[in-house]
Structure formats: C-alpha cells, structure tokens
Amino acid sequence: LALAPVSSPPVSVDGFVREFLRELNFGQGVALSASTVNDQYLALARTVRHYLMARWLETMRRQKETQAKGVAYLSAEYLLGRQLGNALLATDLTDIVADGLAQCGIDIADLRAQEVEPGLGNGGLGRLAACFVDSLATMSVPCIGYGIRYEFGIFRQTFVDGRQVEQPDSWLALGAPWEFPHPDSAQEVSFGGHTETYTDSDGAERTRWVPAWTVQAVPYNYMVPGYQNGRVNTLRLWRSVATERFDLRIFNSGDYEEAVRSQTFAENISKVLYPEDSTPQGKELRLQQQYFFVAASIADFLEDVLPEDFDLTKLPERIIFQLNDTHPVIAVPELMRVLVDEKGLAWDTAWEITKGCFAYTCHTLLPEALEVWSVELLGRLLPRHLEIIYRINEEFLEEVRERFGDDELRIRRMSIIAEHPERSVRMAYLATVAGSKVNGVAELHSQLLRDKVLPDFNEFYPGKFTNVTNGITPRRFVRLANPGLSELITESIGVGWLTDLERLRELEPFAADEEFRARFREVKAANKRRLHAVLTERDGVSVSDGHMLDVMVKRLHEYKRQTLKVLHIITQYNRVVSGEVAAADLTPRTFIFGAKAAPGYKMAKDIIHLINAVGSTVNNDERLEGRLKVIFPPNYNVTLAEKVIPAADLSEQISLAGKEASGTGNMKFALNGALTIGTDDGANVEIRQLVGDENFFLFGMLEPEVEALQAAGYVPSSYYESNPELRRAIDAIASGVFSGGDRHMFDSVVGNLLQEDRFLALADYAAYIEAQDKVDAAYADQEEWTRAAILNVARSGFFSSDRSMRDYIDRIWHTPPAF
Ligand SMILES: CCc1ccc([C@H](C)CC(=O)N[C@@H]2O[C@H](CO)[C@@H](O)[C@H](O)[C@H]2O)cc1
C-alpha cells in the first residue's frame, strides 16, 4: 500500500469549516450547538495542528534524511506565550479561520482569549529561548529545543491589599491541545546509588554507576512553526513518571499510600517551575530537575535521533548542545558518562567529543545567580558525575599548572571545585572549561564577563569568549502584538521586513513625513484604546486618554530599580501637593507596572506593596486632577506584554549600570515605537548607539563610575541629606503618606535605601529626575516625539532574534540553514 505523503486540509474557508466541525464533533465529542468556548478552542487548536502536520512530518523526514548539523537547545525554561495566534500567522490562515468560525457563529477573538499561555519560564532567559527556537524554525535551521514540561508553570500573581499572593498555575487544567505525548519514547533516568569499578571483557579497568532509583522521562512534543516557510521544528519537553507506577503487592497489603509513593515521588520532578530568577536556593529537587531533562535529552538524541551506526567521534559535526545558562551544565559529565561508561570510549576521545559538542551562554552578572552545587549533594544524587567532574577538574588544573606553573592562588581561583564556604562545584566554571565557546548576551555584558566575572578563563582560553547580543522575534512582538503598526510598515516599505528586520531602515525617510507621523500616532492611540479595553475587562482599571504611558514591565528585582521609578512618581506627586507645580502644568502620565517577585524574595515583595500603596494614594488624590495615574495589573506575562508594549510611549530601562546582562523588553519597546529612558547598561548601550543619542533619554553613572563609587565607599544617606526632593520623597514614605499614617509599613524599603542601597538608586536619583523632566518637555512636542519614535523603530532591526541566530551560527554553532 503506497502511502500518500500527509497532506494538509484544504486551505479554504469551506475546507477549514469542514475540518473544524469534524474535530469538534469527533475529536471533542460535541455538537456545535452544545459546544462551550473551551470545546471550540480545543477543536480549533487541533484543526490548526492538522494544517501544520504535513510540514512537521516533512521537516522530520528531511532532517533524518540529510542528517544536517543542528542545534540542541538545552533550557530549563521556555516562556512560549499563547500558541494559536502564532500558528495562524505561520500558516497564513488567520483570515480563513476567522471567516470560517464566523460562519459557525463564533468570534475568533473569544477563542484566542480562551487559551492559557504555558508559563514554563520566569522571565528574560525563558522568553529568549522561545524567541530563539521561533527564529531557527523561520530560518530553516535544524533545531530541537529540549526542556521540562512543568505541570505547574510560573505562579499566577494576585494582589491582596496590594501585596503579592501566589496561586498555582494549573495551565493544563482545560486541556493542552498543542502537545503530542510519546510515552513509547520514554527514557529511563537514574539517581542516587554508588559507583563501582570492574574489569571488562578485554581486561580494561572500567567504572559503572549502580543507581538507587529511576524514573521515566516521557517526551511531549510541541510544534515550533517557521514563519510561512513550510517548516516546523520540534520542542521536546520531558515529564517525569514513576518507572513502577503502582505497586499492587503493597496495595494489596493495605498500605495504599506506600503503593503510590514512588509515583508521587517521581512525578514531583517535573511538577513545578522554580520561581526564582536570580538567587538559586540550592534545593535538591532543582538539581533533580536539571539532571532529569538533560539525561533524557542526551539519551533521546543519541538513541532516537542519530542513526544506529553513527560514529560518535563525529558527534561535534552533527550537533551542538547550547547550554542556556548553567542550569543544564550537568549535561557535560552526563555525556562523558555515556561515552565512557556505556559506549566504552576512551576518556580522552570522549573528552575531545564533549568539548566539541557544548557551548555556554551566560545570562547574568549577579554573583549570587551563578549556580554552585555542594559536593555533598552532587555526590549523593549523582555519584558517577561527581567523579567525572573531579577528573575533568584535575586535568584542567594540570593544564593551568603547565601554563602558569605552581601559582596556587590562580589554581584555587580557577578550580571548578570551590573549597569555601563548603566544597562545591562552580557550574559556570565547568561550563567554561567544557564549552567550545562562552558568550554573554550584550556587548557590555560580554566585556564584563571577560574582564570581571571570568577574567582568569578569558586569559587561559584566548578566543573562547565571544558575544551575541540578544534579540526578539518580530513575528510575535511586532506582527502579532501590533497589527496596526505592521500594516503601516508594510504599506510604506512593502512585505519581507518580518524575516529581514534590518529593512526597517527604509522607514527613516518617513520620519520627516507629517502625514506618516499622524498615522503613526493614530496607531499608538489605537493601541492605547485597546489596552484600556483589555485592562478594564481584565482588572477593572482604565487607561486615561491623552496620557503618556510610562511603562516598567520586568521581574521585580532590586538591581532593576523599580524603587527609582517609585521615587520619581512620589517626586511628581510632592511637587503638586506642595503647591510648587500646578496639576494642570503636569504632563498627564499613567505609570504602568508589571512585575512578579520570587516568592522567597521579601524585599521584592515589599517593593510591590509600596508601588500599590503609592498607586492608590496618587490615584485617589483629587489634587492631582487625574493627571498622574498608577496602574499595576497583576500577573504580568507574555500575553499582557503583547497588549502593554505596543501602547507604551516611554520604556523604563533603569537598572544600575553593569547589572542587567542585556534586557529584551527594551528591544520590544523600541521596535513598537516607544522612547527609552535608561542607563548605559546591557543592550541599552547598543539601542542608544543605533537609534541615536538624540532619540534616547540617557542618564546615570556608567559602569566604571559605579565601580569607582563602590570602591570609594558609598553612603546612600548622604544623597538623602543633600537632595531636598529626594529627602521629601523618602520622608513621604516614612511618614505614612502612602500607608494611612502607618510610619513603619515600609521600614524595610526605606531602611534599605538609606543604609545599604546596594544598587545605588539614591546616587542616580538626581540624574534620573532631570532626565524625566526632559521627557516631559520632549513629549510636549508631539511631532518631534513621533519623529524620534519612528526612528527608534527604523533603527532597531538589529534586535531581531533572527540576527542573534545568524551570530550564533557564524561564531559558535556553524549550523547553516538546511533543506
Ligand atoms: C535561580 C537560578 C536562576 C538564576 C538565573 C536565572 C536567569 C539567568 C535570569 C535571567 O532571566 N536573566 C536574564 O536573561 C535575559 C536573557 O538573556 C537577559 O536579557 C536579562 O538581562 C537577564 O537578567 C534564572 C534562574
């Protein structure tokens, strides 16, 4: 029976309606008349899958056929966002589906709104992974994204009396139509136990791991559709289940709980995402999660993706495992274990292969965010891997000695094993020793990695350190999030810019065109009205017409300095309530915040409480005449970002110089026509260089100045003493103005600012306020503002994740687009 290649359903309204109703009736098991919105959404999702299936299967077939070199992206997080809109865009089915559904009396907008986004990430790192796999599919580069299918993603944030309260994110509850489980391709993953040496058949001394317990890793495949290029790559996320799901013998003995203990124990591994995004808690379950998905991924690639007889010494020509930060770096000793213990390769051969197969991206500058695992825990959970890490370290330090002689200080500094405070493995060092390349995510970041974070390694490995500045996918964050702007762009410069974003440069001349500026402003105004509708429906808050939207959306962290933003709002408030400035003379502004705090990060939660407290005071103070508003919608996520960012006028990127590795929100705002007020930190530097100083509100100390001030000894209270507006702002908080007279409600925040202020918010306050006054003045000239906004869009094409992928391919992966 010659099987015809899988073909997609007919690309017509009728064809779609037939497919949809068949899916609703036979797949969902309901009649249209009795179907719920969720039934309709699930049926639609599955119908759209059908249109992508032929492409997916064809991509897999050609991958298997060509065995072209590809990327295996190892990431503990993927912040994917909703899938339906992107799938419709990739297949160019949006209009057909909207018409077809309308014929069935269904508004596509209701089904889009029904989708719960998979929140399988915390913030920047997770979203970057999602943008990267989108770009690789659109650029026809072979790639498998590997990760964890958390049953519960990033918590849902609610506010109770202005305080963050976390709710579990049961994103799977209403069905998960975009995933394809493959229990038959499960991989066994082992833990614990001990190692033993033995002599093998040809008399060689060998080591084997005798684990104490195992779990099953079940793969769930997700489509990663390329943009209208007939290509669909795969994202493979692992779920943990018990090897022995149910022990009937114990059950029959009446100990029901014990009978299912191993099941619950195993399931815990992929149960929930760790909500920290900068301070590792060093929890054993976190290490179990990291090893679980890494071991399953390596076994999957070596056993199921590679052909039977693949010559493993050629592995570096076939795959590059990209380590998305240190979280998957246990993959290095895991590949060594498989190659030496299971495949019988010699250590040196295995090490050559391993060094050729890995590369490491670092996403942080905070010393506390660099993961270290205690030798005690590693030895208990992964005894064989600890042995392998010890040997890698010995041989590495031997090389260091050869190069630098017995420089014990250097040896101790560079050792993968840290002796203090407890013997532990420095995962960033292991990644650097094993990786063929190490990159930062923005020019400044990569320079600080070379000079400050890993200088010894930069000296020891000339040419290993490189940079690839982050990027974002314009398909989701321009075309899908901002259809109005996309239409205006296409009308002006034609199609093609979505996959060649540098072509936005052709918009430059339009900045001088008054009519175009008016259209550009109308698009922004329409996005503000849309945001108003969304927030009114979602949270019962309204966005005032004619207000400048000043937006700060990112995780809550002291180095990102949301406190500085709060001090600006209070300063404006004080200027009016003190009578210095008439409310009528204020530039009407609405300050929009979006930020989740790691549940264990008390200071971050107190800052959220302060923002909400200041917000309700400002919003209800008649004296402001509604000219200043503060909005803090709870549960900031990808879906809300897609509504807020296109409506923004001002993008707040105010981290202390030298602390934000890159930032990616900053890029999304610039590409959606917002102007940036920011420090020279992370990718802000490159944004300012490309859009032009005159189209960017720069303020604050540069990184070397920060170093100098910290070295000289920083006394935050001296800034409080010497700057009356700053003093008045802090005194307002301390005197209970925003806490119903309770003078101690925000002692933690005020105390920290005056005594420690680790991220120098008070030192940058004056420059920030000055820059904000410039923003007010600039906003008064709407023509000039619009011209600058258009130039921000025109000159930000560089920040496409497609360009980032081209840089990774040229500098690190050497995986050209294939077939
Ligand atoms: C708890 C352990 C931990 C530590 C660090 C992290 C991430 C690396 C934090 C993160 O998301 N970093 C952000 O990565 C973005 C993508 O490169 C950058 O744009 C941001 O500047 C950086 O903060 C997650 C979890």
From TrEMBL:
Keywords, ordered alphabetically: Carbohydrate metabolism, Glycogen metabolism, Glycosyltransferase, Phosphoprotein, Pyridoxal phosphate, Transferase
Question: Which superkingdom is the protein from?
Answer: Bacteria
Name any cofactors this protein relies on: pyridoxal 5'-phosphate
> What are the annotated GO cellular component locations?
cytoplasm
The UniProt record lists the EC number as 2.4.1.1
Designated name of the protein = Alpha-1,4 glucan phosphorylase
Q: SUPFAM superfamilies given for it?
A: UDP-Glycosyltransferase/glycogen phosphorylase (SSF53756)
Q: Known catalysed reaction(s)?
A: [(1->4)-alpha-D-glucosyl](n) + phosphate = [(1->4)-alpha-D-glucosyl](n-1) + alpha-D-glucose 1-phosphate
What GO terms in the biological process aspect are recorded for it? glycogen catabolic process
Organism listed in the record: Serinibacter salmoneus
Q: Name one GO molecular function term.
A: glycogen phosphorylase activity
